[in-house]
Specification:
The chain has 367 residues and is α+β, with helices and mostly antiparallel strands. Helices cover 29% and strands 25% of the residues. The chain has two domains: 174 residues, Uridine Diphospho-n-acetylenolpyruvylglucosamine Reductase, domain 3 (2-Layer Sandwich), CATH 3.30.465.10; 154 residues, 3-Layer(aba) Sandwich (Vanillyl-alcohol Oxidase, Chain A, domain 3).
């Protein structure tokens, strides 16, 4: 089924619920290997025909769009007005807005701008009963109480169908410049990261790659990538503060960051049976995480989220203090180490989808 209006989407959900049919909610299916595959549903519902711009207020830095709109189309529209939603999700050319939000995917600029939870200011979603729920609004600061839309962010389509999303926008920087520090050994690179984190500099991206990942994006050794944005005066300040770095600008810089943002799709295309593990740790522990993981490593080195790319048949066991999951290729139980909030999540699932009909088993194999 491919509804063309929110009303058709609601009707499809309601009809399936009355028959107790399990439902597979889909966008562009770019994340079909993300989390757990789930159980085969009785019917599939795609949101790709819900692809309209509902409201755009450039001067207010807000936009409302339907969930099936391609992320690439949204990004192009905003760029024409020198604006952006700085999430940098993987599969950006194919992914839909609803898919990006439902999977809570983000990229290198997460350090400065946050994730979807920080950029989504409103949402319309439709639970299994077909009664639409509208949360938030079209203002950047919303103090109307509990924003239930936040529950849908990262829920992998297991709680309700997202019909539309409202975002707060950011202006595109006047210019950007990237500084690359590389070394054969990890210690100098992590030392440089620590110096930057303690300094007055506030780069929008602070990513670190190990030699295996660096080789795939055209650089060498352990490398720290520092992206700054702003006026020429701001960028010149970075150049003075980071004189030992290799400087990257223009098309070469854009290509470099695209290769980082799309590292997961590229790796999985090359190794379809591989796994991608996501580890959350303290900043101090990132060095140990990166040194422990086999295969390529890409780390958001300024916020403690590290991605390890495990070749086929490779197994890896993290220490208990690191929260870790197989983000791609995890099978029915993708969690390696998780927190103790699963009972709460199950209660939320029971509240919104009591019969467990939506994307059953999709949430990391748990529900």
């Amino acid at each position: 089924m491919t509804p063309t209006t929110p009303q058709e989407l609601a009707g499809s959900l309601r009809a399936a619920a009355e028959k107790k049919q399990t439902i597979g909610l889909r966008g562009a299916s770019t994340k079909r290997r993300m989390a757990a595959a789930g159980r085969e549903p009785a019917i599939a519902i795609s949101t790709t025909s819900l692809n309209q711009i509902l409201q755009y207020e450039p001067k207010d830095l807000t936009i409302s769009v339907q969930a099936g709109l391609r992320w690439a189309d949204l990004r192009a529209l905003l760029a024409a007005n020198r604006q952006m939603i700085p999430l940098d999700p993987p599969y950006a050319q194919q992914a839909t807005v609803g898919g990006v939000v439902a999977a809570n995917t983000s990229g290198p600029r997460r350090r400065w701008f946050g994730t979807a939870r920080d950029l989504v200011i409103g949402m319309t979603f439709i639970p299994i009963d077909g009664l639409a729920v509208q949360t938030g609004g079209m203002v950047v600061k919303n103090v109307a109480g509990l924003d239930m839309g936040k529950l849908l962010i990262g829920s992998m389509g297991t709680l309700a169908a997202i019909a539309s999303v409202n975002f707060k926008l950011a202006p595109l920087p006047e210019a950007t410049r990237t500084f690359v520090f590389s070394d054969r050994n990890p210690e100098p690179v992590f030392a440089r990261r620590d110096e930057i984190l303690k300094s007055v500099l506030q780069p929008s991206s602070l990513d670190l790659v190990n030699p295996a990942a660096a080789a795939k994006i055209g650089i060498d050794g352990w490398s720290l990538l520092v992206r700054a944005g702003g006026s020429q005066r701001v960028l010149d300040r970075y150049s003075r503060e980071l004189p030992a770095a290799q400087v990257c600008e223009g098309p070469a810089e854009s290509k470099l960051w695209e290769s980082i943002e799309e590292f997961t799709p590229s790796y999985l295309a090359e190794f379809p049976a591989a796994r991608v593990v996501r580890v959350s740790s303290t900043l101090r522990e990132v060095r140990a995480v990166a040194g422990t993981l086999p295969g390529p490593v890409v780390s958001r080195a300024g916020n403690g989220v590290t991605y390890g790319y495990l070749p086929p048949e490779t197994r890896w066991s993290p220490p208990a203090e690191w929260q870790a999951c197989y983000e791609y290729g995890g099978g029915d139980d993708a969690w390696l180490n998780s927190g103790d909030d699963l009972p709460l999540m199950r209660r939320v699932k029971q509240m919104l989808d009591p019969d467990g009909l939506l994307n059953p088993g999709r949430y990391y194999g748990r529900f």
